[in-house]
Amino acid sequence: MTVTPPAVRGVTIWFTGLSGAGKSTLAEALAPKLRALGQRVEVLDGDAVRTHLSKGLGFSREDRDTNVRRIGYVAHLLTRNGVFVITAAISPYREARDWCRETIRDFVEVHVATPLAVCAGRDVKGLYQKAYAGEIPSFTGVSDPYEPPVAPELTLSTEGISVDEGVERVLEALRSRGYLSV
Question: Which of 66, 84, 146, 179 is the most buried (most CB within 10 A)?
Fold first, then answer.
């Protein structure tokens, strides 16, 4: 007699927000917590994906959407195979994020809604300074739009909360939607 293991349900946790909002920090802190709960986890960080999967793309709207859709497609493949996928990508345009939501289905959007001034103040790479000086054209939040999600599953600002508090809010969002039982 062959025993079939129970179905494993994956989910994509899609962190979106401005540069410096705290997406990658939250993603990197969430991953070990989920692993400790017995989940298979993969982190798709926007910067890493752009380097390896989307090399050669620029920052036009079309290129940004292509990058987001590539991340979404990989997340879809992993999610349908029971993996908890954590993405951390600015993903500035609603239409591309909505495409990902429709494609992936098990999708929890987390809008990291940290104010622009706070993000600019955290700017360790000096990108905001260059954008304000006009050295970086089409910089999201400065010279290019960021379209906030209309109905994310969770909105949080990393201003005034600890990383652990942010991670706990994400875990609670996953529990309340049936992705985690503990």
Answer: 84
Q: Would you say 181 and 48 are in contact if contact means Cβ atoms under 8 Å apart?
A: no
Range name among 8-22, 53-67, 99-113 with the lowest pLDDT average? 53-67
By the 8 A CB rule, do 166 and 156 touch?
yes
Which residue, chain included where needed, has tokens 């959007």?
109
Helix/strand/coil (H/E/C) assignment for every residue in 92-139: CCHHHHHHHHHHHCCEEEEEECCCHHHHHHCCCCCHHHHHHCCCCCCC
Residue 181 token pair: 């039982």
Active site residue 138: no
Is residue 4 predicted with pLDDT exceeding 50?
no
pTM for this entry: 0.92
Q: Among the options 19, 24, 91, 138, which is catalytic?
A: 91
What is the distance between the alpha carbons of residues 73 and 90, in angstroms, rounded to a whole number? 16
Cα distance between residue 148 and residue 18, in whole Å = 10
Asked if residue 2 has pLDDT above 80, the reply is no
Tell me which residue of 65, 28, 69, 24 sits closest to 147, measured CA to CA: 65
pLDDT confidence of 28, banded at 50, 70, 90? very high
